[in-house]
Amino acid sequence: MKVLLTADVHMGRRSSRIPARFDRSRLSCADAWRRMVDLAVENRVDLVAVAGDLIDRDNRYFEAFGPLVRGLARLAEAGIETWAVAGNHDHEVLGAFAGSSAAGGFRLLGQSGRWEQAVFHSPTGGALQVLGWSFPRERFPDDPLEGLTPSLAPDLPTLGLLHTDLDQSGSPYAASTTAGLSSLPLDLWLIGHAHRPLRIDRETGPVILNPGSPQAMDPGETGPHGVWLAELLPGLRPRMEYAPLSTVRYDSLTVNLEGVETEEALRARIISDLRTHLARAEADDDVLEVLSCRLRLTGRTRLHRLLGAMLAPMRQDLELPGVRAEALVEDLALETRPAADLETLAGSSGPPATLARLLINLEKDTLSSDDERLIERVRDKMAEINGSKPYAALPALEADPGAARLVLLRQGLLLLDALLAQKEEGA
Ligand SMILES: [Mn+2]
Predict the structure, then answer these.
(1) Residues 6+ apart with CB under 8 A from 268
(2) What is the whole-number distance in angstroms between the Cα of residue 125 and the centre of ligand 1?
Protein backbone atom coordinates (compact mmCIF):
# COMPACT_ATOMS: atom_id res chain seq x y z
CA MET A 1 0.00 0.00 0.00
CA LYS A 2 1.69 3.16 -1.21
CA VAL A 3 0.46 6.52 0.03
CA LEU A 4 1.53 10.02 -0.89
CA LEU A 5 1.47 12.15 2.26
CA THR A 6 0.89 15.89 2.25
CA ALA A 7 -0.70 18.77 4.18
CA ASP A 8 -0.97 22.55 4.00
CA VAL A 9 -0.96 22.75 0.22
CA HIS A 10 -2.76 26.10 0.59
CA MET A 11 -3.93 26.24 -3.02
CA GLY A 12 -4.66 29.85 -3.91
CA ARG A 13 -1.38 31.12 -2.45
CA ARG A 14 2.14 31.36 -3.86
CA SER A 15 5.71 31.86 -2.64
CA SER A 16 6.17 35.45 -1.49
CA ARG A 17 9.02 37.94 -1.74
CA ILE A 18 10.35 36.59 -5.04
CA PRO A 19 11.35 39.19 -7.68
CA ALA A 20 8.78 39.84 -10.40
CA ARG A 21 10.97 38.50 -13.22
CA PHE A 22 10.34 34.90 -12.05
CA ASP A 23 7.46 33.03 -13.65
CA ARG A 24 4.52 33.57 -11.24
CA SER A 25 2.83 30.33 -12.23
CA ARG A 26 5.89 28.33 -11.11
CA LEU A 27 5.60 29.91 -7.67
CA SER A 28 1.98 28.98 -7.03
CA CYS A 29 0.79 26.33 -4.61
CA ALA A 30 -1.66 25.16 -7.27
CA ASP A 31 1.35 24.31 -9.44
CA ALA A 32 2.86 22.36 -6.54
CA TRP A 33 -0.40 20.39 -6.40
CA ARG A 34 -0.08 19.69 -10.15
CA ARG A 35 3.49 18.40 -9.67
CA MET A 36 2.29 16.33 -6.72
CA VAL A 37 -0.35 14.70 -8.86
CA ASP A 38 2.33 13.86 -11.46
CA LEU A 39 4.48 12.36 -8.73
CA ALA A 40 1.60 10.26 -7.39
CA VAL A 41 0.82 8.93 -10.87
CA GLU A 42 4.48 8.23 -11.74
CA ASN A 43 5.00 6.39 -8.46
CA ARG A 44 1.72 4.49 -8.83
CA VAL A 45 0.59 5.25 -5.31
CA ASP A 46 -2.72 3.82 -4.13
CA LEU A 47 -3.85 6.86 -2.19
CA VAL A 48 -3.09 10.55 -1.71
CA ALA A 49 -3.61 11.60 1.93
CA VAL A 50 -4.02 15.26 2.93
CA ALA A 51 -3.94 16.50 6.55
CA GLY A 52 -5.84 19.75 6.11
CA ASP A 53 -5.49 23.20 4.57
CA LEU A 54 -5.53 21.84 1.04
CA ILE A 55 -7.18 25.13 0.05
CA ASP A 56 -5.86 28.36 1.46
CA ARG A 57 -9.03 30.11 2.44
CA ASP A 58 -12.64 30.21 1.46
CA ASN A 59 -12.14 33.35 -0.63
CA ARG A 60 -9.39 31.65 -2.64
CA TYR A 61 -11.72 28.86 -3.61
CA PHE A 62 -12.28 30.06 -7.17
CA GLU A 63 -8.56 30.27 -7.84
CA ALA A 64 -8.07 26.83 -6.35
CA PHE A 65 -11.11 25.11 -7.81
CA GLY A 66 -9.88 24.50 -11.38
CA PRO A 67 -6.47 23.05 -10.46
CA LEU A 68 -8.03 20.99 -7.63
CA VAL A 69 -10.63 19.39 -9.90
CA ARG A 70 -8.13 18.78 -12.73
CA GLY A 71 -5.69 17.16 -10.31
CA LEU A 72 -8.34 14.93 -8.74
CA ALA A 73 -9.54 13.90 -12.20
CA ARG A 74 -6.00 12.93 -13.25
CA LEU A 75 -5.58 10.93 -10.06
CA ALA A 76 -8.94 9.22 -10.48
CA GLU A 77 -8.03 8.30 -14.08
CA ALA A 78 -4.93 6.61 -12.72
CA GLY A 79 -7.05 4.77 -10.14
CA ILE A 80 -5.84 6.90 -7.22
CA GLU A 81 -8.20 8.26 -4.58
CA THR A 82 -7.60 11.30 -2.38
CA TRP A 83 -8.58 11.19 1.27
CA ALA A 84 -8.38 14.32 3.36
CA VAL A 85 -9.35 16.05 6.56
CA ALA A 86 -10.12 19.77 6.76
CA GLY A 87 -7.94 22.31 8.56
CA ASN A 88 -8.67 25.73 10.01
CA HIS A 89 -8.39 27.32 6.56
CA ASP A 90 -10.62 25.03 4.54
CA HIS A 91 -13.10 23.73 7.14
CA GLU A 92 -16.04 25.23 5.27
CA VAL A 93 -15.04 24.99 1.64
CA LEU A 94 -13.79 21.40 1.76
CA GLY A 95 -17.04 20.17 3.23
CA ALA A 96 -19.00 21.88 0.46
CA PHE A 97 -16.62 20.56 -2.17
CA ALA A 98 -16.74 16.96 -0.89
CA GLY A 99 -20.50 16.97 -1.38
CA SER A 100 -20.32 18.26 -4.96
CA SER A 101 -20.24 16.28 -8.17
CA ALA A 102 -16.77 17.69 -9.00
CA ALA A 103 -15.27 15.67 -6.16
CA GLY A 104 -14.74 12.35 -7.95
CA GLY A 105 -12.32 10.15 -6.03
CA PHE A 106 -12.21 12.63 -3.15
CA ARG A 107 -13.25 11.75 0.37
CA LEU A 108 -13.38 14.07 3.37
CA LEU A 109 -13.09 12.29 6.72
CA GLY A 110 -14.28 13.38 10.16
CA GLN A 111 -16.62 16.20 9.19
CA SER A 112 -18.14 18.42 11.90
CA GLY A 113 -15.27 17.60 14.25
CA ARG A 114 -16.33 13.97 14.69
CA TRP A 115 -13.69 11.27 14.36
CA GLU A 116 -14.38 8.95 11.46
CA GLN A 117 -12.86 5.58 10.70
CA ALA A 118 -12.90 3.93 7.29
CA VAL A 119 -11.07 1.22 5.40
CA PHE A 120 -9.50 2.11 2.08
CA HIS A 121 -9.28 -0.76 -0.39
CA SER A 122 -6.83 -0.32 -3.21
CA PRO A 123 -7.62 -1.71 -6.66
CA THR A 124 -4.48 -3.84 -6.29
CA GLY A 125 -5.91 -5.64 -3.28
CA GLY A 126 -4.32 -3.91 -0.27
CA ALA A 127 -6.32 -2.42 2.57
CA LEU A 128 -5.59 0.49 4.88
CA GLN A 129 -7.47 1.66 7.92
CA VAL A 130 -7.79 5.43 8.05
CA LEU A 131 -8.85 7.54 11.01
CA GLY A 132 -9.51 11.25 10.56
CA TRP A 133 -10.87 14.39 12.17
CA SER A 134 -11.78 17.64 10.41
CA PHE A 135 -12.01 21.17 11.81
CA PRO A 136 -15.70 21.96 12.42
CA ARG A 137 -15.02 25.72 12.41
CA GLU A 138 -12.02 28.03 12.13
CA ARG A 139 -11.07 27.75 15.77
CA PHE A 140 -11.10 24.71 18.02
CA PRO A 141 -9.50 25.43 21.39
CA ASP A 142 -9.58 21.82 22.68
CA ASP A 143 -7.47 18.73 22.13
CA PRO A 144 -9.23 16.77 19.38
CA LEU A 145 -7.77 13.52 20.78
CA GLU A 146 -9.75 13.93 23.98
CA GLY A 147 -12.14 11.03 24.39
CA LEU A 148 -10.90 9.27 21.25
CA THR A 149 -10.85 5.51 21.85
CA PRO A 150 -10.80 3.94 18.40
CA SER A 151 -11.49 0.25 17.97
CA LEU A 152 -9.06 -0.66 15.24
CA ALA A 153 -8.70 -3.88 13.34
CA PRO A 154 -5.30 -5.20 14.45
CA ASP A 155 -4.48 -6.90 11.15
CA LEU A 156 -4.62 -3.74 9.01
CA PRO A 157 -2.06 -0.95 8.81
CA THR A 158 -3.55 2.26 10.22
CA LEU A 159 -3.10 5.86 9.16
CA GLY A 160 -4.35 8.84 11.18
CA LEU A 161 -5.14 12.22 9.59
CA LEU A 162 -5.28 15.33 11.74
CA HIS A 163 -4.75 19.06 11.36
CA THR A 164 -3.38 20.16 14.73
CA ASP A 165 -1.19 22.73 16.43
CA LEU A 166 1.07 20.07 17.92
CA ASP A 167 2.34 20.58 21.48
CA GLN A 168 1.04 24.18 21.60
CA SER A 169 -1.27 23.98 24.58
CA GLY A 170 -3.63 26.93 24.68
CA SER A 171 -3.61 27.32 20.90
CA PRO A 172 -7.04 27.85 19.28
CA TYR A 173 -6.08 25.43 16.50
CA ALA A 174 -6.90 21.98 17.83
CA ALA A 175 -3.72 21.51 19.85
CA SER A 176 -2.85 17.90 20.50
CA THR A 177 0.32 16.48 21.98
CA THR A 178 3.07 14.19 20.77
CA ALA A 179 2.38 12.05 23.85
CA GLY A 180 -1.32 11.84 22.98
CA LEU A 181 -0.67 10.84 19.38
CA SER A 182 2.00 8.35 20.45
CA SER A 183 -0.33 6.63 22.91
CA LEU A 184 -2.70 5.41 20.20
CA PRO A 185 -2.05 2.12 18.36
CA LEU A 186 -1.63 3.57 14.86
CA ASP A 187 1.21 2.98 12.42
CA LEU A 188 1.43 6.51 11.11
CA TRP A 189 0.01 9.90 12.00
CA LEU A 190 -0.07 12.37 9.13
CA ILE A 191 -0.53 15.80 10.66
CA GLY A 192 -0.66 19.34 9.30
CA HIS A 193 -0.80 22.99 10.37
CA ALA A 194 2.81 23.96 11.10
CA HIS A 195 4.42 24.50 7.72
CA ARG A 196 7.79 23.33 9.01
CA PRO A 197 8.39 19.63 8.34
CA LEU A 198 8.63 17.36 11.37
CA ARG A 199 9.18 13.62 11.62
CA ILE A 200 9.16 11.64 14.82
CA ASP A 201 10.14 8.03 14.20
CA ARG A 202 11.01 6.16 17.37
CA GLU A 203 11.48 2.43 17.83
CA THR A 204 7.97 1.99 19.17
CA GLY A 205 4.71 3.87 18.81
CA PRO A 206 3.35 5.46 15.65
CA VAL A 207 5.50 7.45 13.26
CA ILE A 208 4.37 11.09 13.43
CA LEU A 209 4.90 13.04 10.24
CA ASN A 210 4.16 16.65 9.50
CA PRO A 211 5.29 16.91 5.87
CA GLY A 212 5.14 20.72 5.97
CA SER A 213 3.89 22.87 3.10
CA PRO A 214 4.85 21.29 -0.27
CA GLN A 215 5.55 24.76 -1.68
CA ALA A 216 7.46 27.03 0.70
CA MET A 217 5.40 30.22 0.96
CA ASP A 218 7.45 32.74 2.90
CA PRO A 219 10.96 33.33 4.25
CA GLY A 220 9.94 31.83 7.60
CA GLU A 221 9.44 28.45 5.90
CA THR A 222 13.11 27.63 5.60
CA GLY A 223 14.79 24.51 4.27
CA PRO A 224 13.61 21.88 1.80
CA HIS A 225 9.86 21.48 1.27
CA GLY A 226 8.08 18.60 -0.39
CA VAL A 227 5.96 15.52 0.22
CA TRP A 228 6.52 11.96 1.47
CA LEU A 229 5.84 8.62 -0.10
CA ALA A 230 5.07 5.91 2.43
CA GLU A 231 4.64 2.19 2.13
CA LEU A 232 2.31 0.76 4.76
CA LEU A 233 2.21 -2.97 5.30
CA PRO A 234 0.59 -5.00 8.09
CA GLY A 235 2.98 -5.67 10.97
CA LEU A 236 5.83 -3.56 9.57
CA ARG A 237 7.00 -0.05 10.38
CA PRO A 238 6.06 2.35 7.57
CA ARG A 239 8.78 2.85 5.00
CA MET A 240 9.06 6.51 4.12
CA GLU A 241 10.75 8.45 1.40
CA TYR A 242 10.97 12.21 0.96
CA ALA A 243 10.34 13.84 -2.42
CA PRO A 244 11.23 17.52 -2.93
CA LEU A 245 8.47 19.52 -4.56
CA SER A 246 8.94 23.22 -3.85
CA THR A 247 10.36 25.39 -6.64
CA VAL A 248 11.42 27.87 -3.97
CA ARG A 249 13.65 27.31 -0.99
CA TYR A 250 14.09 29.94 1.69
CA ASP A 251 17.16 29.73 3.85
CA SER A 252 18.96 31.62 6.49
CA LEU A 253 22.67 31.71 5.85
CA THR A 254 25.40 32.93 8.21
CA VAL A 255 28.39 34.54 6.52
CA ASN A 256 31.40 35.04 8.76
CA LEU A 257 33.29 38.20 7.81
CA GLU A 258 36.19 37.57 10.19
CA GLY A 259 39.29 39.06 8.61
CA VAL A 260 37.46 40.71 5.70
CA GLU A 261 39.01 44.15 5.23
CA THR A 262 37.98 45.47 1.81
CA GLU A 263 34.83 45.86 -0.21
CA GLU A 264 36.20 43.40 -2.78
CA ALA A 265 36.87 40.80 -0.11
CA LEU A 266 33.38 41.40 1.29
CA ARG A 267 31.75 40.74 -2.07
CA ALA A 268 33.94 37.69 -2.68
CA ARG A 269 33.16 36.17 0.74
CA ILE A 270 29.39 36.58 0.35
CA ILE A 271 29.35 35.27 -3.21
CA SER A 272 31.50 32.28 -2.35
CA ASP A 273 29.27 31.31 0.60
CA LEU A 274 26.10 31.78 -1.46
CA ARG A 275 27.53 29.70 -4.30
CA THR A 276 28.47 26.83 -1.98
CA HIS A 277 25.02 26.90 -0.41
CA LEU A 278 23.31 26.96 -3.81
CA ALA A 279 25.37 24.01 -5.08
CA ARG A 280 24.39 21.99 -2.00
CA ALA A 281 20.71 22.89 -2.30
CA GLU A 282 20.69 21.96 -6.00
CA ALA A 283 22.41 18.66 -5.25
CA ASP A 284 19.63 17.45 -2.95
CA ASP A 285 16.70 18.99 -4.77
CA ASP A 286 16.05 18.66 -8.50
CA VAL A 287 12.88 20.78 -8.46
CA LEU A 288 14.51 23.90 -7.06
CA GLU A 289 14.34 27.11 -9.13
CA VAL A 290 14.85 29.89 -6.60
CA LEU A 291 17.01 29.85 -3.48
CA SER A 292 16.05 32.91 -1.46
CA CYS A 293 18.51 33.63 1.34
CA ARG A 294 18.44 35.76 4.43
CA LEU A 295 22.05 36.52 5.19
CA ARG A 296 23.36 37.00 8.69
CA LEU A 297 26.72 38.68 8.55
CA THR A 298 28.82 37.92 11.61
CA GLY A 299 32.41 38.08 12.80
CA ARG A 300 34.86 40.79 13.70
CA THR A 301 35.78 43.10 10.84
CA ARG A 302 37.25 46.54 10.28
CA LEU A 303 34.36 47.15 7.86
CA HIS A 304 31.81 46.86 10.65
CA ARG A 305 30.67 50.48 10.61
CA LEU A 306 30.74 50.75 6.81
CA LEU A 307 28.82 47.59 5.97
CA GLY A 308 25.40 49.20 5.76
CA ALA A 309 26.54 51.69 3.11
CA MET A 310 28.64 49.12 1.22
CA LEU A 311 25.93 46.49 1.00
CA ALA A 312 23.08 48.69 -0.20
CA PRO A 313 24.34 49.05 -3.80
CA MET A 314 25.74 45.50 -3.79
CA ARG A 315 22.43 43.76 -3.24
CA GLN A 316 21.35 43.50 -6.86
CA ASP A 317 24.68 41.89 -7.73
CA LEU A 318 24.07 39.19 -5.20
CA GLU A 319 21.92 37.15 -7.57
CA LEU A 320 23.75 34.05 -8.69
CA PRO A 321 22.81 31.58 -11.39
CA GLY A 322 23.45 27.93 -10.53
CA VAL A 323 22.93 24.90 -12.75
CA ARG A 324 19.12 25.08 -12.72
CA ALA A 325 18.27 27.41 -9.86
CA GLU A 326 19.18 30.95 -8.96
CA ALA A 327 20.25 32.23 -5.55
CA LEU A 328 19.20 35.65 -4.35
CA VAL A 329 19.46 37.66 -1.17
CA GLU A 330 16.09 38.47 0.32
CA ASP A 331 17.34 40.23 3.44
CA LEU A 332 20.54 41.06 5.28
CA ALA A 333 21.11 41.21 9.01
CA LEU A 334 24.28 42.92 10.20
CA GLU A 335 25.59 41.22 13.29
CA THR A 336 29.28 41.90 12.84
CA ARG A 337 31.56 43.42 15.47
CA PRO A 338 34.22 46.09 15.16
CA ALA A 339 37.79 44.86 14.93
CA ALA A 340 38.65 46.25 18.37
CA ASP A 341 39.25 43.70 21.09
CA LEU A 342 36.66 44.31 23.82
CA GLU A 343 38.65 42.66 26.62
CA THR A 344 41.75 44.81 25.97
CA LEU A 345 39.67 47.97 25.67
CA ALA A 346 37.76 47.22 28.87
CA GLY A 347 41.04 47.21 30.80
CA SER A 348 41.83 50.83 29.90
CA SER A 349 39.93 53.98 30.89
CA GLY A 350 37.69 56.55 29.24
CA PRO A 351 34.34 56.28 27.40
CA PRO A 352 35.38 53.42 25.04
CA ALA A 353 36.49 51.35 28.05
CA THR A 354 33.19 51.95 29.90
CA LEU A 355 31.28 51.02 26.77
CA ALA A 356 33.44 47.94 26.18
CA ARG A 357 32.67 46.70 29.71
CA LEU A 358 28.96 47.14 29.10
CA LEU A 359 29.21 45.28 25.78
CA ILE A 360 31.06 42.37 27.39
CA ASN A 361 28.32 42.13 30.03
CA LEU A 362 25.62 42.26 27.36
CA GLU A 363 27.29 39.59 25.26
CA LYS A 364 27.94 37.23 28.14
CA ASP A 365 24.62 38.06 29.78
CA THR A 366 26.44 38.81 33.06
CA LEU A 367 24.51 41.97 33.86
CA SER A 368 25.11 44.36 36.74
CA SER A 369 22.15 46.15 38.29
CA ASP A 370 23.21 49.29 36.34
CA ASP A 371 23.13 47.30 33.10
CA GLU A 372 19.70 45.96 33.96
CA ARG A 373 18.39 49.46 34.62
CA LEU A 374 19.77 50.56 31.26
CA ILE A 375 18.03 47.66 29.48
CA GLU A 376 14.83 48.60 31.29
CA ARG A 377 15.16 52.18 29.96
CA VAL A 378 15.74 50.94 26.41
CA ARG A 379 12.71 48.70 26.73
CA ASP A 380 10.60 51.65 27.93
CA LYS A 381 11.79 53.72 24.96
CA MET A 382 10.84 50.90 22.58
CA ALA A 383 7.40 50.65 24.16
CA GLU A 384 7.09 54.43 23.84
CA ILE A 385 7.88 54.20 20.12
CA ASN A 386 5.26 51.49 19.71
CA GLY A 387 2.70 53.78 21.30
CA SER A 388 3.60 56.94 19.41
CA LYS A 389 1.62 58.18 16.44
CA PRO A 390 4.37 58.89 13.86
CA TYR A 391 5.43 55.23 14.00
CA ALA A 392 1.93 53.77 14.09
CA ALA A 393 2.16 52.52 10.51
CA LEU A 394 5.33 50.52 11.21
CA PRO A 395 5.31 47.00 12.66
CA ALA A 396 5.57 47.14 16.45
CA LEU A 397 8.97 46.50 18.06
CA GLU A 398 9.22 43.56 20.37
CA ALA A 399 9.60 45.53 23.57
CA ASP A 400 10.82 42.84 25.95
CA PRO A 401 14.11 42.79 27.91
CA GLY A 402 15.68 40.24 25.52
CA ALA A 403 14.97 42.41 22.46
CA ALA A 404 16.12 45.53 24.33
CA ARG A 405 19.42 43.80 25.21
CA LEU A 406 20.02 43.00 21.53
CA VAL A 407 19.24 46.57 20.44
CA LEU A 408 21.59 47.90 23.09
CA LEU A 409 24.33 45.48 22.03
CA ARG A 410 24.05 46.35 18.32
CA GLN A 411 23.88 50.08 18.89
CA GLY A 412 26.67 49.86 21.48
CA LEU A 413 28.96 48.12 18.98
CA LEU A 414 28.26 50.83 16.40
CA LEU A 415 28.88 53.53 18.99
CA LEU A 416 32.14 51.91 20.05
CA ASP A 417 33.25 51.73 16.46
CA ALA A 418 32.45 55.45 15.99
CA LEU A 419 34.25 56.40 19.24
CA LEU A 420 37.36 54.48 18.19
CA ALA A 421 37.29 56.08 14.73
CA GLN A 422 37.17 59.53 16.41
CA LYS A 423 40.11 58.57 18.59
CA GLU A 424 42.12 57.49 15.54
CA GLU A 425 41.30 60.72 13.72
CA GLY A 426 42.26 62.76 16.81
CA ALA A 427 45.55 60.93 17.30
MN1 LIG B 1 -3.62 25.38 9.40
Answers:
(1) none
(2) 34
